[in-house]
Amino acid sequence: MKTQVCIIGGGPSGLMLSQLLHLKGIDTIVLERQSREYVLGRIRAGVLEHGFAALMREAQCGERMDKEGEIHDGFIIAHDGKMDRVDLHKYSGGSSVVVYGQTELTRDLYEARDRMKGIVIHNAEDVQPHDLKSANPYVTYRSGDEVVRIDCDFVIGADGFHGVSRKSIPRDVLKEYEKVYPFGWLGVLSRTKPVSPELIYAKHERGFALCSLRSQVLSRYYIQVPLTDTVEDWSDEAFWAELKRRLPAEVAAQLITGASIEKSIAPLRSFVAEPMRYGNLFLAGDAAHIVPPTGARGLNSAASDIYYLYHAMVAHYKDGDSTGLDKYSEKALARVWKAQRFSWWMTTMLHTFPDSIAYDQKLQDTDLAYLFSSEKALGSLAENYVGLPF
Ligand code: FAD
Ligand code: DHB
């Protein structure tokens, strides 16, 4: 097989790039290790910045998001018995975020790829990129007993944190920066009315909690748990009881509980791999960087990589201008590191660290006190949360 751009990974990053390039007449093949049902069964991001939403529209995939997604102009931080609101609209100069689940937007992207007869190969085993430094790279995968070869101009590594692409870059070229947090988030999805129309981030001595949502009938809640906990340790009853303990009493009293329809634990990690280009391989999204979910930056950071790559590829193929490709890694990393800083800061301010000393706790309190006493601090939070410009 032959294509112009071979994309490894059929998550939001890979599908979005494939769709955008297709609309500009650039040929792609997407290789996804899992089945479509598996990919659509993963419950992940819920909060999209406007840059992401704009990219969905440009990819002709924004119709359902615009109809069913909710615009959120603010969120609440509950701490020390108080409920302080961050007015995103006011402090970001009129911007907001869109609450629309990653599962739904991935479904929309798959449907668009099907509609346009885009090639997405599922259950592709042993995917391996080759000859990345040459002008003729290729990717192989196994389908049953058959090994298939795809010749291409470029390989895109959009295969998430555990993918094969980043691992194809030699050790002496790749530099990895990593910070692992001593806790995870236990998430529950339930078919219940959300406890609050806006998200509530709750700082509590027992641990952080987040009340989020997917729609007015679908709630998503998270609690901070030790890394040693497993999903089996948490019955639905135990989860709801612990969530209530960490929420302000008036919120806990309003919480409608129900059977969980999904329950999973995600460890928290900050990670960046540099550079994001090796020869004709370009990394994008979680394949190159991970943030703890606290600032809702992960998928949104993937979107800016895709935006840069998309424009760079179009300039290369349509105008013979490769400057965008040459500058991709540097440009993408500049924004990636800002998302890293913001996510680390939100995480540090709102979580309970097992080894923290009294001094650290005083600083956490002061961080929040400063935030809600300074319009400039709120402005900084708001501009990062709604998304820095691409
Ligand atoms: P992925 O979604 O990981 O997709 C990669 C794909 O590649 C997968 O489908 C995988 O099966 C496939 N793959 C892997 N290896 C191979 C291989 N060898 N060959 C072929 N295919 C392969 N972000 C936000 O912006 N806002 C939020 O509110 C938010 N909330 C989150 C909450 C949680 C609990 C978690 C865990 C994450 C959250 N995120 C959030 C982060 C967001 O989900 C990720 O950043 C996003 O999924 C990245 O998309 P991606 O396409 O780059 O990678
Ligand atoms: C979700 C929402 C967030 O704001 C966040 O920071 C992390 C996750 C969610 O709804 O899944």
From TrEMBL:
What GO terms are given for molecular function? Answer: 4-hydroxybenzoate 3-monooxygenase activity
The secretion signal range is: none
Q: Give the top-level enzyme category.
A: oxidoreductase
State the source organism's domain of life: Bacteria
The answer to whether UniProt assigns keyword Oxidoreductase to this entry is yes
Which UniProt keywords are listed? FAD, Flavoprotein, Oxidoreductase
EC number annotated for this UniProt entry: 1.14.13.2
This chain belongs to the protein called 4-hydroxybenzoate 3-monooxygenase
Which residue intervals define the domain FAD-binding in the entry? 2-343
